[in-house]
Amino acid sequence: MAERVVLAYSGGLDTSVGIGWLQDATGKEVVALAVDVGQGGEDMDSIRQRALDCGAVEAVVVDAKDEFANDFLMPALKANALYQKRYPLVSALSRPLIARHLARVAQELGADSVAHGCTGKGNDQVRFEAAVAALAPGLACIAPIRDLALTRDKAIAYAEEKGLPIQQSKKNPYSIDKNVWGRAVETGFLEEPWNGPVEDLYEYTADPAADGPADEVTITFAEGVPVAIDGEVVSPLEAVVRLNEIAGRHGVGRIDMVEDRLVGIKSREVYEAPAAIALIAAHEELENLTLERDLGRFKRDVEAEWSNLVYDGLWFSGLKRSLDVFIDDTQKSVSGDIRMTLQGGRATVTGRRSVQSLYDFSLATYDTGDSFDQSQAKGFIEIWSLPSKISARRDLAPGE
Ligand code: ARG
Question: Which residues are catalytic?
Answer without folding.
Answer: 14, 95, 124, 175
